[in-house]
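Weekly sync notes, structure subgroup
Attendees: PM, AL, DS (notes)

Item 1: joint prediction request from the bench team. They want all two components modeled as one assembly rather than separately. Inputs as received:
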Amino acid sequence: MSRSDWRAHAWQLVHAAPQRPALHMALDEVLADEVAAGRRPPTLRVWEWAASAVVIGRFQSLRNEVDMEAARRHRIQVVRRITGGGAMFIEPGNTITYSIYAPLSLVEGLSFQEAYARMDAWVVEALGTLGIRAWYQPLNDLTSEAGKIGGAAQAHRGGALLHHVTMAYDIDTAKMLQVLRIGREKLSDKGTPSAAKRVDPLRRQTGLPREAIVARMIDTFRRRHGLAEGALRDEELQRAAALAQAKFGSAAWTAEVP
Amino acid sequence: MHGEYKMPGGKLVVIDLALRGDRLADVQLSGDFFLEPDHAFACINAALQNLPAATDELAIAAAVHAALPAGVRMYGLSPEAVAVAVRRAVQAGIA
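Output from the run, pasted for the record:
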């Protein structure tokens, strides 16, 4: 197999109304599997959040990462995703999240580092048109001179690549620090005294409304790679809803690494 | 008992464990690394259970390496990093 070009695929956009955190987790699994099975074209899904959430990585310890009492107090849902990486603190108006479900051929022969950079080159370009000089900071951060913008994660499922990214549009740092336990070891490596300084949100860097940034991102993807309007199929939504209930909404999965 | 190791250029690798007699028990790996296939995670945890607490870093890394399934993909994680975190957890328990 040789590496395919973005233009070799007929990309479809899914941008649905706000959905629950557990349903978002389930949709990533279902849509990656649909693309792997050839039942869905390669897809860009832009997320809208219906609730605040902490999304922890597949292998993170729930109690090491999250203060569950604080999460309950702030009505923040805690979910575990299927990809590795670190915890994300989500508030609906403060976050820009998207997933790309692609044939694995798109990253054929690339190192981890190259694969992450390739999947987000369109975002780096979109941010550039908004005056932000952004780049990939290995292993999996999207960053600019002003600070970290977002984090990415990838997983392979069958013949499909799942690549998803959460970017900070705005951030309530005080609330985040109440809910997330930030490990000392990690901070020492970043050379900064507090998690607060690590993230510099897009709102401050652009002065634009969140919707304008999302629109520019979608336009940039369409111009570079082609992008047709699409929607979730009923069958996909039903399977995701069942999975959200049975797996992603369950304590067994969320606390699988206690 | 708890040990952490931030791999240079890698991710945070965490080990929680107990000592039962002179052996490792209830070993739980965690962290913000990337690891595929998914069941490789259970393979690593299983490889660490019941190891003698005195096992050195090199031997721990070898045990992890031997347990990895074919086609494993690790990003920000290595058997050597797991071994460092295990030794730190054991030493934290003894200290």
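Discussion: The helical segments of chain B are 40-48, 57-67, 79-94.
Action: AL to compare against the crosslinking data before next sync.
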